[in-house]
Design brief:
- With 486 residues, the chain is mostly beta strands.
- The chain has a single domain (19-478), classed as Methylamine Dehydrogenase, Chain H.
- The chain has two helices and 33 strands.
- It has helices at residues 85-93, 242-246; strands at 21-23, 27-30, 38-45, 63-71, 74-81, 126-130, 133-137, 144-146, 153-156, 173-174, 181-186, 195-201, 207-214, 225-226, 230-236, 238-239, 253-254, 260-266, 275-279, 289-293, 296-303, 313-314, 326-333, 342-345, 368-373, 394-399, 405-409, 415-416, 420-423, 433-441, 446-453, 458-464, 474-478.
- The longest helix is centred in the N-terminal third of the chain and has 9 residues, at 85-93.
- The structure holds fe (ii) ion.
- Fe (ii) ion binds next to loops.
- Fe (ii) ion (FE2) binds next to loops.
Length: 486
């Protein structure tokens, strides 16, 4: 029996949803652009059973995929759990069997398998497409293939044995010029190991080259960047150890004495050609974009000066201070003789860490970064849920060439999530298209999907779900050229 009554953060709007749904012809306000032909997929965590231990963290819930299928100006919705081994085991047992975040030593003996931690993934982070197939991903396990139309889970894959890592990033990157995909797995050979497996997939989904190397110290490697010539993998701050896991703690702690680090891997080089640059203590969860300019590699990303994860204990005993992310530029000079990089803050305005770009400019020179953020100049949130008071209320378009910020306000009672950019069919100009992202509305106890013209930053339509859809991790738009959509 499921009982969430003792979970302090799982009431009202933030209670688990725990149901699967189909809506034919969703309620819509405004006009859905008829050019929008494709599907917006979201992955979000949704507890099937209450966490055990009860203070397990919000990165652990079961994965759930939502699909908003757009065509001819109408939208259909479908939502299904990702049927991981973990989901099926819990469903059969009718209780939570899995312990703390990425600590298999805390699992129920019936499922405990520390040598194969990928078996306990919830696949709850990012929808990814590779060679015409849709996957649910999470960085602690293998991608789970999903049917793009029914959302049936087809199962995990190691790509026929070609993927030599226990885990696969939730943030692979596609080169828009060659259509190659770069992806990596960290803790590749086992819990807390320092090794990383990096590979390039060709357009057909075959691995054409791979690397294996060690990071300076084991840390969360959540995102990456890809330029025409380099792969960039940032990390640092978060730390782990087998001793820590044997003590029954969550996977990560925070060590403010540790430097941030950045691996720069030449796409045409070998593992011995990797350059490691070091910086001061930083949180860098997601990246925006990067490019190679002669002997320099330049990357923009939201970064904070300390730990942004409220659940990661500070090894120095400090209190969590919630440092703010700002959009910064890091420059790596490959001609330099030392391991230092330079950092510049591009915008003082705090933002969330969920930056996105027009993926047609990935790895190239570009202009716009899209991100949701809290705009204090918008109407106050009197009477809203305490968890929502300073939640993101606007989608922003941050112009890194002019410094201009254009925004679209989502509503006085709404919490906005990561916007995804959808190019206008037939267009080639950067930024010509729409932003799509969820706006959660606890006052109406429902989730809404905003469609915003990305050139004017004006809302053109909103899809209204008659229920709460859990807050997402990431979303992605794919069209009929990406997936065999029905
Ligand atoms: Fe992410």
């Amino acid at each position: 029996m499921a009982d969430f009554s003792s979970q302090p953060g799982m009431h009202g709007y933030f209670a688990p949803a725990r149901f699967e749904a189909d809506i034919y012809d969703c309620e819509v306000t405004g006009q859905i652009p008829t050019e929008l032909d494709g599907a917006f997929y979201r992955l979000h965590p949704d507890w099937l059973y209450p966490p055990n231990p009860p203070d397990d963290i919000a990165l652990s819930p079961d994965g759930y995929m939502s699909m908003f299928r757009f065509r001819n100006g109408v939208v259909d919705y479908k939502g299904r759990y990702v049927r991981t081994e973990r989901f099926e085991n819990q469903r059969a047992a009718r209780r939570q069997l899995y312990g703390y975040y990425r600590n298999p030593f805390t699992d129920d003996p019936s499922v405990r398998d520390p040598d194969h931690p990928q078996r306990r993934t919830t696949a709850n982070t990012t929808p990814v497409v590779l060679a015409g197939a849709l996957y649910a991903t999470k960085e602690d396990g293998l991608p789970h293939r999903m049917d793009p139309n029914t959302l049936e889970t087809l199962g995990p894959t190691d790509f026929g044995g070609a993927w030599k890592s226990q885990a696969f990033t939730a943030h692979p990157k596609v080169d828009p010029v060659t259509c190659e995909m770069a992806a990596f797995g960290y803790e590749a050979s086992g819990l807390c190991s320092r090794d990383v497996f990096l590979a390039i997939f060709d357009k057909a989904g075959s691995i054409t080259r791979d690397w294996r190397f060690e990071v300076p110290y084991t840390s969360m490697l959540h995102d990456m960047c890809l330029t025409r010539e380099h792969v960039i993998i940032p990390g640092g701050g978060s730390v782990t150890s087998l001793e820590r896991l044997h003590e029954g703690k969550i996977h990560w702690a925070w060590d403010s004495s540790k430097p941030s680090y950045y691996g720069i891997i030449p796409r045409d080089g070998d593992a011995k050609d990797i350059r490691w640059f070091l910086g001061p203590e930083r949180s860098i969860v997601h990246t925006a974009n990067a490019r190679t300019e002669g002997s320099k590699v330049v990357m923009e990303a939201p970064m904070a000066d300390g730990n942004t994860w409220p659940w990661f204990e500070d090894l120095a005993g400090g209190q969590f201070s919630a440092p703010k992310n700002t959009i910064r530029r890091i420059t790596f000079d490959l001609n330099s003789k030392d391991d230092r990089c330079t950092e510049e803050t591009l915008f003082a305005r705090p933002v969330t860490s969920f930056t996105r770009v027009d993926d047609r400019r990935l790895g190239l020179s570009y202009r716009y970064i899209y991100v949701q953020y809290f705009d204090p100049d918008q109407p106050a949130r009197a009477g809203t849920h305490p968890q929502m008071r300073y939640a993101a209320n606007s989608f922003g378009r941050f112009d890194i060439q002019t410094g201009e910020i254009r925004s679209c306000f989502g509503g006085e009672t709404h919490m906005l999530q990561e916007p995804s950019f959808v190019p206008r069919p037939g267009s080639t100009d950067e930024g010509d298209g729409w932003l799509i992202g969820t706006a959660h509305n606890p006052c109406e106890m429902r989730s809404e999907l905003m469609i915003v013209d990305a050139t004017t930053m004006e809302e053109v339509a909103r899809v209204i779900l008659p229920f709460r859809n859990a807050t997402q991790v990431h979303g992605a738009w794919f069209g009929p050229n990406d997936l065999p959509l029905a």
